[in-house]
Amino acid sequence: MPLTEPKVDVVTDLPATSETDVYAVHGADPEVLAYAMAKYSRSALSMKESLKEISSQRAEQFLNTFYFQYGHRSIADLAHLSFAIERLSLLAAIELVDEQRWDGQERSTRYQNFKKSGWYTPAFAGDATLRSEFTAQIEALFAAYERISLGAVEHLREKLARPEAMKEDAYERTLKARAFDVARYLLPLAANTSLGQIVNARTLETQVSRLLSSEFAEVRLLGEKLRQAASGAAWNVQADALRALTEKIRAAAPQLGDEAATLIEREVHVSPTLVKYAAPNPYEMDSRKTLAQAAREWMAGAPIAAAPVVDLVEPDTGSGALEIDLATSLLYPHCHFSFRQLRDRMRELNSAQRSEIIALGVAHRGRHDELARPFSAGQLLRFDILMDIGGFRDMHRHRKCIQLRQGYTTAHGFDLPEYVEDSGMRAEYERAMQTACDAAVKLGGCGSDVSPDAQYLLPLGVRCRAMFKMDFAEAVYIADLRSQPQGHFSYRRVAWEMYQAVARQYPALQALFHTTDIAEPVDLLKR
Q1: pLDDT grade, residue 137 (50/70/90)?
Q2: d(CA 383, CA 403)
Q3: Residue 238 phi/psi, 5° resolution?
């Protein structure tokens, strides 16, 4: 019996080609583009076909339905938005960039003279006398910043002769950069900076909500301005050139010029829908008060124990280990104790007491709130770092870590930068730092705590404490990168101490690091 051919269904709607097509997309509004990408899961249309049929009104309707009503929040990951944030304080900048999903760049304290940037003056509840005292102290800090900077340049010029192969302007720029590394310790948190950020709409929404929930008035206003910038008309870098082109077209063909003008003058609103409901977060604000009170109660009467620059807190073992880590992590940002000291106190509590603290961390949580950052617990490597605020700003960029930061305080003193001793400026430096710290306490202090308004007076050389939780790969990356000779001496020391701590606890893994020994001589003319 002869074999018969199998029956095959004929498909008549196959595409003309089955080759992969790749093309970049330009010119679509961010929310419209997010809608078009989201349509891949609900439509067989190509990106080009989708974008041709989508209007901004349809995008808004779609996002209102699927983003807000059905909770498909991943859609907002597809809309990437660019912002310039200019003339905000260093304090506000730290708050702004405190996102794990964030990309951006900020003005460098190494390559720019911050004396020209001005500063933010807090309200001090309308007290003109306090504002006047604050201004006088800020001016004194900037004067010291300039003197220390000039003194450091002269010291380095005497110490480092210009190589013949190095041009004079490059030599001077390098000396100034190294001098600014020293002088930045005197910059107050009130000093203005500027930055640019590129974030997706979901990150922007959580960022705006977090900023609106801040204890700092400037930061709350910044959150509102970000929301307005996302929903208002965006600045078009090509606007002037396009207007000039339109006038040329209008001169040759008036009707065509009017049509071109209508198209060119169309305002682009980068995210009018996705962030319109961003609001202060009661979960964050109420938890801050509740956990701060709990930290005061459980640590009542305990002095702040001395701690090293870097403390690799060994992991807990046995039953209750995760509960201890969670309870410690929840209280840590709301006090000035080291993670180890706080952890040891949590070990003394029974399971019910620790569960009570953990319950406080979710007591105010709403239906759509993600768990607070301290619940990202259980990492093997936990580095409790006590360093100057300026150095922390550099370490803050490592977003693969879980970072828990404590409030600014005078309790930990301040650091002494390199070259200050050799250049004969130590006395002036210490006098300026101590005067600023004393003034901050006077303007709004209670023991080691400093009020939100008075914290703007604290210089970057003041020490702050932060916990960095990470996996092994990130520890190697930070230690190797941040210990390199061209880096700032503040975080180079931290990176070296991180490596040393891991090597002591896990000696078999030491060979996997390629960390630069900070004791090795450094060519200061290389950046």
Answers
A1: very high
A2: 10
A3: -95, 5
Instruction: Look at residues 360, 356, 324 and name the one whose alpha carbon lies nearest to residue 342.
Output: 324
- Dihedral sign, Cα of residue 282, residue 284, residue 285, residue 290: positive
Closest CA to 115 of 146, 157, 136, 84: 146
Residue 61 pLDDT exceeds 70: no
Q: Summarize the confidence of residues 215-233 as an average pLDDT.
A: 91
Q: Which has the closest alpha carbon to 393: 82, 92, 81?
A: 92
Other Cβ atoms less than 10 A from the Cβ of 305: the count is 11
CA 241 from centre of chain: 35
For 274-317, write each residue's pLDDT tens digit: 777 789 999 999 999 999 999 999 999 999 999 999 999 998 88
According to DSSP H, which parts of 299-338 are helical? 321-331
Instruction: Identify the bridge partners of residue 469 per DSSP, sorted by sequence position.
Output: 382, 402
CA nearest to 178, candidates 147, 146, 158, 149: 149
- Tokens 């506000």 — which residue? 92
Question: In the block, which residue shows the tokens 């010119």?
Answer: 27
Which among 362, 384, 522, 400 has a CA at the least distance from the CA of 463?
384
Tokens 């609106």, residue located: 212
Is there a contact between 367 and 428 (Cβ–Cβ < 8 Å)? no
Q: For residue 155, which amino acid is it?
A: H
CB 33 within 8 A of CB 78: yes
Sheet hosting strand 463-470, strand order edge to edge: 310-312, 381-388, 463-470, 402-405
**Best CA proximity match to 104, nearest among 207, 240, 196:** 196
- Does the predicted model carry a pTM greater than 0.70? yes
Q: Give the C-alpha separation, 412 to 129, whole Å.
A: 28
Q: Pick the closest to residue 193 from 449, 398, 517, 460 (CA basis).
A: 460
pLDDT value at 13 more than 60: no
Quick: pLDDT tens for 488-525: 999 999 999 999 999 999 999 999 999 999 999 888 87
The H-assigned helical ranges of 75-216 are 90-96, 128-159, 168-183, 201-212
Rounded-to-integer distance, Cα 492 and Cα 391, Å: 9
The string of pLDDT tens digits covering residues 427-481 is: 999 999 999 999 999 998 766 688 999 999 999 999 999 999 999 999 999 999 9
Q: What is the pLDDT of residue 9?
A: 44
Cβ contacts of 333 within 8 Å, gap of 6 or more: 291, 374, 404, 405, 406, 407
Which stretches of 435-492 are assigned E, i.e. beta strand? 445-446, 449-450, 463-470
Neighbour-count burial of 453, counting CB atoms closer than 10 A to its CB (0-12 exposed, 13-18 middle, 19+ buried): buried
- Give me 23's structure tokens: 């093309």
Burial label for 9, CB within 10 Å (0-12, 13-18, 19+), is exposed
What distance in Å separates the CA atoms of residue 407 and residue 388, rounded to the nearest whole number?
13
